[in-house]
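Whether sequence alone determines local backbone shape is best considered at the level of individual chains. The sequence in question and its structure tokens are set out directly beneath this paragraph.

===
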Amino acid sequence: MTKKIRILSLDGGGIRGIITCVILKYIEEQLQKIDHPDAKIGDYFDLVAGSSTGGLITALILYPGNDPQKAKYSVLEALELYAEKGDSIFNVSFWERLINPFGLFNEKISQKNLEKQLDEVFGKLELKNLIKPCLITSYDISSRKAKFFCSHEAQAPLENFYMKDVCRATSAAPTFFEPAKVKSLYNQEYTLVDGGVYANNPAMCAYAEARKIPFSKKIQESQKPDYPSIKDMIIVSIGTGQVLKPYSFKEFENAGKIKWVSPLIDILLTANAETVDYYLDKMYHTLGPRNRKNYYRIMPQLKNASSEMDDTSKKNIYELIQAGLFYIDNNREQLNEIARKLVKNK
């Protein structure tokens, strides 16, 4: 019997990625109950896609363990790493705030802390060594085109990178971090920014990438279809909290460029994610009532958490966790159903 290709897609959103980790942790706990007590979520998807903070989480859950085909980190371990490193990454000193208020004259956050933390976590791990196919997004501002980091294409040095560089590139959010200058292991240099500029919700990119992959060979599973169509896929797409801040006409009547910068970024990221959800939802609806239930868009409410991507205060981290738990409490059956389908198509 042919099994479905299980795809996980993770949105960008800075420190709000904690919400993603909380929801993934619950799904992983259900996998441990119904399949194996040591289950790790990275072992239950055939392709994982991520933008920005979603790219970082992708890298963590696909990090190889002692068995190079099995995940090293549980979601809890990834969440602890994320919360622990987040404060160091996003910390902006008093002096930096004084000379660069609101990030108007420079990137808002120094990249040195980010690079130090990435080096500590990933060291010399290479893209080709991730346990499953992945798609991590970035954008090449020099050649002006999308750059996808795909582990299943990284056997050639030209497409292989150190994971610390992949994560640096996908998280190089404009106005927060300066662009990343990274080299492939073939020594080709790229100047990259956060993939969220075009795919903050990378689920459609994941679908397109999956169509190109001979899964039975890549993951050595004879029951998995090669070059799957949408009816062969289960897609679980997770957002980092719904941002619905309203903007009035009066507020932006005769507004100049500076006033538009922050609202425009907010609107573009949100609109991008919503549009991808709309496309996939319509595509799955063409498959009939049975198969259309294989697309899940999980977008929690932020509740009392800040929508700011760099708010690493203890209070906000607590509120982000609570936002994730609130979603779980109100959507338990849906998340349990996802876990059952992941096991069924293992």
Notes: Confidence is low (pLDDT under 50) at residues 89-109. Strands lie at 5-10, 47-50, 134-140, 145-149, 180-183, 189-194, 233-238, 295-298. The first helix runs from residue 17 to 34.
